Amino acid sequence: MKTNVQATNRLHFIDHLRVLSVGLVMYGHFVLVGGGAKTIPNVIREDAHDLPILDHTNWGAQKFEILLIESFSSQSAILGVAMFFVITGYLMPIMMERYSRKQFMINRFFRIYPLAIVTALLIAPFAYFAQGFQFTAWQIFATASLLYPFLGVPVFNSVLWTLVVEMLFYITVFLIGRFTILKLLGVQVAISFLIYCSIEYPEVWIAQFLGWNARFVLMICIGCAIYLAEKQRRPLVGFLLILWSLLLSYVGFKEYADHFDDTSTYQSFGTHTLVVLGFLSYKGYFSMFVSSKSPLISTLSELVYPLYLVHMSFGLTTMYLLKDYLDSNYMLFITAVAVSVLASAALHIVIERPGIQWGRYFMIRPLPAGAVS
What is the pTM of this model? Predict the structure, then answer.
């Protein structure tokens, strides 16, 4: 039986992958959006005529993006988000072996919502003073609560759609409990059916909402498959489970794209294979050659969630406000990263860390007499 220390060391590679993932997302947004977008909704005011922010002819940072697009039909930010989804899928079965369903939902609530609420409350005034955006109280509520898809309110933090996907997956995890191969296959079939319904009933809003998000839940299931594959005595069974999950996710994205206007590179086979091979390769390398955790990576990994939430608003706005004062694209990029990291560190210390501690408190607090867990 593994000790707690051994079990913890086994997951240190996740810290590295989370830092890599948020780095890819920030790189893609700062380089590709900052260097190519002529409009950046809810970040840079609509009447701005001096976009893109960066002059891409003066630096070669976009060459990596060009390589990804031309060689793998993928993009760095999309690879980062896809890796986040696979990481989520890998970790959730582990959590369900440790927590009850109630504890799991409490953990997820306090992990997601305190920071989501506070960042919405911070981004709204920041966007007003920096770019003159005026978001209504209803917009702020819809954004902070992640209920904007149901309320029909435009969201002003464009990265929050991934949290909606993850919340839908958490509800799925709550319903199925501990993972087995049969449960995973059942979930994958049910999710594929939701995609089919969205194609068959394009005029039904709930079918569209569930079908659009279901594709990404299928991608999350790849991570679940990787975890379950590790537990199989026969390697062939594990390999086939991962391959099946990868192909099913790819087919789900392609089927949806064939019927709707979806030109993102999430649907590409290159994105799927790069993420899965990258996850497996790094996990294998880490288990063979890395015996201890890196303090720097551990610290940065704690900032990943706030970094993901604020980098678009704080980072890109900083680049725009300073572009007339800093001639170097590299200096603008570094400054945007620095501002995002500093803001994330403050949010982690003041909001995220206490929120996690409160979650732990409610998870272990004794139930009232007569209560049923």
Answer: 0.94
